[in-house]
Amino acid sequence: xxxxxxxxxxxxxxxxxxxxxxxxxxxxxxxxxxxxxxxxxxxxxxxxxxxxxxxxxxxxxxxxxxxxxxxxxxxxxxxxxxxxxxxxxxxxxxxxxxxxxxxxxxxxxxxxxxxxxxxxxxxxxxxxxxxxxxxxxxxxxxxxxxxxxxxxxxxxxxxxxxxxxxxxxxxxxxxxxxxxxxxxxxxxxxxxxxxxxxxxxxxxxxxxxxxxxxxxxxxxxxxxxxxxxxxxxxxxxxxxxxxxxxxxxxxxxxxxxxxxxxxxxxxxxxxxxxxxxxxxxxxxxxxxxxxxxxxxxxxxxxxxxxxxxxxxxxxxxxxxxxxxxxxxxxxxxxxxxxxxxxxxxxxxxxxxxxxxxxxxxxxxxxxxxxxxxxxxxxxxxxxxxxxxxxxxxxx
Length: 395
Fold this sequence. Notes:
Creatine Amidinohydrolase, Chain A, domain 1; Creatine Amidinohydrolase; 23% strand; 2 domains; single chain; 10 helices
């Protein structure tokens, strides 16, 4: 599935408008996801975007695939140190102000660019890219809707996979196999440094309350300190929460979704917390519309949790608590906007975010809900269409 040229051209046009506003003559894009977003291909390449005119893609490997997939001129280049020379050959004036993705490029790459573009002053274009990508086009939203339908199909089949006496890991393997059957790409892309995620989380009982290095509410035990998150070897039991938090990635785009399952009946404390999470979701969504401040939605969620007497368990427990209740999502899991404390950003039509009110109880588990939504002129449209109810599995 190739991205239409008019779609990519619209993205580049928005970037060039921000470059003009910031008196920036060129932008060299190197991060994989940004490269795909602005060029239509994800190869070993660098995309040079001039402030005016069409970009050019310098490709080390694979030139043939880049040529087939990108609408821009593709130049085969064995060494990226030759980019300035090739730009001059193509009639470009070398930029005096050159933007880079400061948030993701390694120091070694930055020093390399300083060496080969020694005439330039470097500026940070990271936020320009993130702002543009935060508002999805109709083309992107259609792909996200398809992703929502595919992961719903998988979750419909989870009850037949849940059996007491089987481990989290064994059960997760069955869930993930279903995802692959529907076309899940396998890779979960995260922009944040040192953040990793594989498919998602299937956590039973007290394992649902285990935190780790990731920026999420919970992590699970994983298989060891070498990968300390995700499903582990703990056996699933009756009358305890089985928490599924999975990222459906189809056609390159991600949806994030959490549902709560139980074989038998859920403990009263967790049942109350789950119902409270649903109420928080509803209260936040009632406020979602273009122009609403993302940080205010977080504060609303916190106040609802506190009024329910569950403030200390909301979005983690103790020092492990996180100060957000939602995050943008698209080609990466951690996009804009963030529904977080102090995050002063107005929602816009076309923004897509995952809303995830959750409660953590050490020694007992986790209860909560997560859905992916798109901001519309009328409010919010649900993309992860599987019902929100607690799913009770009979023995």
